[in-house]
Amino acid sequence: METALILGLTSGGACLATCGPLVAAFLTAEQISLKRSAALLTVFLSGRLLGYIGWAVVSWLLGQAIFQNTAGMTIFAAADLVLGGWLIYYGIYRPLGHSHESCPASILKPLASPAIIHHAFFRSGIWGILSGLQVCPPFLAAVTGAARTGSLGGSLLFFLVFYLGTGLWFIPFPFIGTLGRFRQVAQVARFLTLPLGAYFIYSGFISIAGGNSFYG
Amino acid sequence: MAEMFVTPKDRVEPLPGLGKNWGASLLWTLLMVICSLLLFSKGLSQGSPAQRVAAGATIIFLTGIFLWMMRSGETYRPRRVFYVALGFLFPVGFILELIAQRASMSISWEQMLLGNTPFCYLALPMMALPAVLSKTIIFPGSILPTPENHHAFGTMLALWFGATLILGRGWCSWGCFFGGIEEGFASLRRKPLWAKIDRRWTLFPWAVLSVVVVGTAISLAPFYCEWLCPFKTVTEFPAVTSLRTAVQFGIFTTLFAAIVVILPLLTKKRTQCSFFCPLGPIQSLTNKINIFELKTDPDRCVSCGLCEKACPFLAIDRGEGGLRQVNMYCSRCAACADVCPKGAVRFRIKGTPFTVNSSAPRMMFLLATWIFATMFGGSIIANSVAKILGHLF
Hints:
Radius of gyration of chain A: 18 Å
Number of strands of chain A: 0
Number of helices of chain B: 17
Largest sheet of chain A: none
Strand order of the largest sheet of chain B: 1-2
Distance between the termini of chain A: 14 Å
Number of strands of chain B: 6
Structural class of chain A: mainly alpha
Helix content of chain B: 55-70%
Order of helices and strands of chain A: HHHHHHHH
Oligomer: heterodimer
Structural class of chain B: mainly alpha
Helix content of chain A: 55-70%
Order of helices and strands of chain B: HHHHEHHHHHHHEHHHEHEEHEH
Strand content of chain A: under 5%
């Protein structure tokens, strides 16, 4: 579960950098009090947790289908190498989101627009689920990690720890107005995907080479 | 570097040196000679012949550098000579010591666990969280000095904290011996081959710091030392006994080659210090509590941009109307102050107004800094020279 926590803490920054503008736009769309903002964020994060649970189930099924033999393990190791490279590319070359459009979940925006869902709390919950179901490099990295656990419970626990790691980054959002250096924080957060990518490349390399584990 | 610096005939404002006033220059220098003699008295009186020669040579070297700073008013170039010497002599002395002790630069886990590894200040930022969580210092060394190991955690923390109070991030240009290596490579070329550097990389050390702190807290092992420190290449590294240690060695050497040798050579910037070192952000924050600063006088700045080009840390921002401002990443190397043709960038004591041709803040900074540099860097230089002499003769 160390991997899940490291993954969550490091990629949570990337989530913040990518999807932060979406959450900020959504929380500051109207003039709301800090209390209401915190309540909306709680509903959003709860919805996000549901999305993560969905990924945990998918990861378990994927693990059952692929991760049962040597060939499957090699596929996962190769996936780690590809994901590691993708994470590094993502951290260096993908520009910071100037708007909420940078978040992969924003393609599903029409489904949760105020025109369709009028109630703010319900809308924030739907947004949370959608942002938790998105496909981005850190999520795919989590999928390969969870699939390796080999059981549904392990996969759920992996995604729960991953969720807690990423969720920490969203706590300051009710105070977003006071964060004058958001862009610098978001950039640092984006850079965190570089060491994360290096870790995945190392992990894939060690798996293929048949060496020992990271802390072994 | 010469073409980047303004020549005396181009300079509208003179540098804040003592010029032809030999008396004043010598008087200030004499003060530093007395300090040096006191600090090296043991080496001079009780040491081996090699130690005596080394102590004497170091005193002469330090005196020459200080006199140069006093007379010319230049800070950057004399400091660089001292700092590069420190940067290159430290690993030589360290390696010779390792060779003498165990005939190898590599160290086994058994030896590390005995606690005989000298504590390195680069590990300070990652020690705090595990110390709070586990009430132990996870670095495989001792907390207090022992007869076998004087460079314990407590010694280094006290030294670093004291130096930081005086220098702020000046530690990175006057104290940290690792930075001298890349400064040496950065000063080899006259012009940079790669001048356009994306400034967002100055934020990367914050990411490294975050990873190191979290990684250390989770693994309860010195994560940076195990996986990321480029300077393992020229000091002490874990013996390569498995695929894992081979990868670690590969990371150390690749990082060293890339950010300590090649990039400084191409960019003329201190790339490891500016874009990687996890201690850098902490040192930058200490600039906030330090009384000295380098600041631009807005009435004098002509927005020529020479200071921005000369700064090895990308610590000069463009403000409104192209006005250059020194930011929190400044390491007080004074390249900007030396290169400014109008004398707009200068040392200042925080809260005081700019005064015409005032050299007092610079002098105060230099006196405090040079006493520290003599004590810390000077003793390392003397030690290393003594080891080289002992090895040769």
